[in-house]
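Please fill in the sequence for the structure shown.

STRUCTURE ENCODING:
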């Protein structure tokens, strides 16, 4: 058989063995095209050189052999609204394809023309290779419930294009859809958070509520942060203010640190903080002494944590946490604690002495108290932070520590977990990090302290409460009377019998 030297359709040179043209796809083994007299093109060729007007399909005038727009015109991927264009009413119906066209049986447009549709152009309603029509719903991959990333070029459905002005992601907060609660995504600041915790616009997972918490009252502020290494925040705090029977104000701050090696430490810390705070707010307005009220509050917190333990005799690894609290009332500063969370006194006059007001229930503190190790040596040991006292069903005999101080000069009390004091352990280090205006800006000061821990590495959850203390003026002491001791010189926790440490 004689081999054609060029394509009968576009005159492209052919090589030995070619069955189709490499440019236009023409079947070179098929009979030659019909004579021009018998040809009935879908779109008549213009007799004059000027370019014909654009067709209704949006692609401009098709090249010879491309044919008219399909019944369901393709969606333009670069069209912001994702609208499907319809052919003009005057457009003639396309004639049946010739059997010579290799793609005629598949229902596609003839590819003989030089022009091709834009990459990503979707199939028409009657052209889908798997028979899916326009009425068949397609799986969405851009929503959180989708199953992966959509193929390149997948069009947005009506009302879902990312830049449409009708979607909820472009409403203002005042126009937030019902049921969203008006919570805006922390990542894109545009979309709204769905019930599953993901942004409806960008799909970003939202931080959990306890990942970062801040609270400020007139006389106390607290901040808690998950840190940079932990997958959840196991700290908790409670701050409150109430009135004493004489009408004076009382301020309460409770900070708890869940024991990570125990089960459900986040629940334990939250239960302890809430129970201690509720107990203090019940006892102080009734006229209970702050030290007695603090002691009972720690017992109430321990009972709340014990209630979380499984009802199985001898159950191990029960929920556990530490606790430290401060009450400022009537010119007195009352501190209570169990575990290694701490309280620091930092005077407004930084030339005065700063003091740590608590003693840790830890292996290192016991070694120092027993005179077996120096402080530097004990805290350098790998067992240093193993606690010997905690709140929980498997704790040893609970002995809450309480102390009362009466400062004679103003300052602030820093109540914190070890996630902070690991980066400012000494009282003088804490005083250097604390802003000078902490007494008038407690929330800002708490934020600065948390930021200091995060900048240092954020290896643990970080929680801190800042409680301003305004000293009441005292008359000069009479003959034979001693002046009031400075903060930290009051009662201190006595060394206790050694107990098995808990990590």
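FILLED IN BY: designer on duty
SEQUENCE:
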């Amino acid at each position: 058989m004689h081999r054609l030297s060029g394509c009968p359709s576009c005159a492209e040179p052919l090589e030995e063995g070619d069955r189709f043209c490499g440019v236009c796809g023409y079947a070179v083994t098929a009979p030659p095209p019909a004579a021009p007299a018998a040809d009935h093109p879908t779109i008549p060729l213009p007799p004059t050189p000027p370019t014909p007007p654009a067709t209704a399909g949006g692609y401009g005038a098709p090249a010879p052999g491309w044919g008219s727009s399909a019944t369901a015109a393709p969606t333009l991927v670069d069209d912001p609204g994702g609208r499907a264009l319809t052919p003009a009413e005057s457009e003639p119906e396309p004639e049946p394809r010739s059997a010579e066209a290799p793609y005629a049986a598949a229902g596609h447009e003839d590819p003989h023309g030089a022009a091709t549709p834009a990459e990503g152009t979707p199939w028409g309603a009657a052209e889908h290779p798997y028979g899916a029509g326009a009425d068949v719903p397609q799986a969405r991959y851009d929503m959180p419930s989708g199953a992966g990333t959509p193929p390149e070029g997948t069009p947005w459905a009506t009302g879902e294009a990312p830049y449409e002005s009708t979607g909820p992601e472009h409403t203002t907060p005042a126009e937030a859809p019902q049921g969203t609660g008006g919570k805006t995504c922390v990542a894109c600041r545009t979309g709204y958070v769905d019930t599953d915790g993901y942004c409806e616009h960008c799909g970003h997972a939202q931080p959990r509520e306890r990942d970062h918490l801040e609270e400020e009252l007139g006389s106390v502020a607290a901040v808690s942060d998950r840190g940079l290494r932990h997958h959840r925040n196991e700290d908790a705090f409670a701050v409150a203010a109430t009135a004493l029977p004489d009408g004076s104000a009382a301020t309460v701050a409770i900070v708890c640190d869940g024991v990570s090696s125990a089960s459900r430490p986040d629940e334990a810390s939250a239960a302890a903080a809430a129970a201690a705070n509720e107990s203090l707010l019940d006892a102080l307005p009734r006229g209970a002494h702050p030290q007695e009220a603090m002691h009972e509050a720690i017992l109430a917190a321990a009972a709340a944590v014990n209630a979380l333990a499984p009802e199985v005799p001898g159950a191990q690894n029960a929920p556990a946490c530490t606790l430290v609290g401060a009450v400022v009332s009537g010119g007195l500063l009352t501190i209570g604690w169990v575990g290694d969370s701490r309280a620091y006194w930092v005077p407004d006059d930084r030339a005065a002495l700063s003091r740590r007001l608590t003693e840790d229930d830890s292996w290192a503190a016991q070694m120092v108290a027993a005179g077996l190790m120096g402080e530097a040596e004990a805290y350098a040991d790998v067992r240093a932070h193993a606690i010997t006292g905690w709140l929980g069903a498997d704790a040893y005999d609970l002995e809450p520590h309480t102390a009362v101080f009466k400062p004679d000069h103003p300052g602030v009390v820093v109540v914190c977990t070890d996630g902070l004091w690991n980066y400012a352990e000494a009282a003088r280090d804490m005083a250097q990090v604390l802003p000078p205006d902490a007494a008038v800006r407690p929330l800002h000061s708490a934020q600065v302290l948390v930021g200091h821990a995060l900048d240092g590495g954020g290896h643990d959850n970080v929680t801190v409460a800042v409680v301003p203390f305004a000293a009441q003026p005292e008359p000069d002491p009479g003959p034979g009377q001693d002046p009031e001791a400075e903060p930290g010189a009051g009662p201190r926790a006595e060394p206790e019998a050694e107990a098995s440490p808990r990590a």
